[in-house]
Amino acid sequence: MKGIALPSLHDYALRISSLNALDAMKIDTPTPVQAEAIPPLLEGRDVIGQACTGSGKTLAFALPLVERVDAGEKRVQALVLCPTRELAQQVGGVLAQVIAGTEIRSTVVFGGRAIGPQEDALRRGAQIVVGTPGRLLDLLNRGSIRLERIKFLVLDEADEMLDLGFAPDVQRILARCSKQRQTALFSATTPEWVHQVSAKYLKDPVVIQIPSEDGNEPDIDHVVYEVWGGDKFGALRNLLDEQTAGATLVFCRTKRGVRNLCAKLGRLGYPVDQLQGDLGQAQRDRVIRMFRAGETPILVATNIAARGLDVLHIERVINYELPETHELFTHRVGRTGRMGRAGRAITLLGVEDLPKWHEIERGLARQFPRMSPDGKLVTPPPPSRPSNGRKGRRSYGRPRSLLRR
To answer: Does the pTM exceed 0.90?
Structure first.
């Protein structure tokens, strides 16, 4: 995309209702991933799209998807598979905006809620379905949904959808879909095995990768603190005691860890809530609603919040415990610095974390400068790298002391 002026979304062959929806959303200029993905998708090509979180991937497939739907046919014509309920709801919300004022109907289906109302929505003739694999399989097995005439299929967060945990369910669903469909895979990371697996499901796909050199990398300052003394909780408290304008998202590795940390912070008077898989759907909806509204400034979460939690005012992400992979690290820190906003990603390292941290850095092909709790640089930052004539951004935040003051 270097040196190429991005067109207006109004330059594409989109239906009037979609253009009106873009006007209502106050969106005109496409993001780089939209500019590269929308034309081939409109041509009917299969696409594999990789771009960082917050880059506009949902709209990149939502606009072409709607073009393939015939409002006069009251059957499922397009399917979007998502790994989490939260992401499914987010994608469903974007599609609802795009089809506003049309006779096209969409519905979101996922577990944790009664299946009856979701079956009713399908019987009423929803043409677009957004859902999670488990609930889709339930509906297929009950005969409540048929996919033999699907025109357009999207795997959102394809790296997770094709991973071992989801792959069997996803493969069962794909086997029930029309072989003549158009297929799109989108994610912030696409490991090599995703390309290998996708070769089975896509036909001569257009591969789109939006690298950081194109200026599409989020403006995120990375800070890594060495907490060799073992007092991560004390370091976290110092961070939470700082004055911030936006919200803070704290990641733990397990549901139990989230519960314990949230309870510990709550007893000390911090305005905190938790998001983890043991919560019922109504509880999860309430937690996200309050966090999005700014009523809960601190959220402690498992990796369930690493995908699909689209909250623009998250000022910083804190990795209290490391994720299992470098891809999850990318998704975690991508919750901040969204849509052109600046953000901070803070990682707390104990001695026991070093092997995993080195593995994450190798996977990212990047080394981050580390600081001691008193704010002194332990390892120097890598040289800044300008892109598109812009000044190189900092790869680390201002040195700050995490020692109790």
So the answer is: no
**Domain 9-213, CATH number (from 3.40.50.300, 3.40.50.150, 1.20.1420.20, 3.50.30.20):** 3.40.50.300
Position 218 confidence tier, pLDDT thresholds 50, 70, 90:
low
Identify the CA nearest to 310 among candidates 342, 284, 347, 336: 336
User: pLDDT (tens digit, 9 = 90+) per residue, 319-348?
Assistant: 999 999 888 898 899 888 776 677 899 999
- Where would I find the beta strands (DSSP E) of 264-388? 272-275, 298-301, 314-319, 342-349, 370-371
Per DSSP, the residues of 83-114 read SSHHHHHHHHHHHHHHTTTSS--EEEE-TTS-
Q: How far apart are CA 302 and CA 284, in angstroms?
A: 12
Q: Are 160 and 307 in contact (CB under 8 A)?
A: yes
CA 392, distance to chain mean position in Å, is 25
Mean pLDDT over residues 267-275, rounded? 95
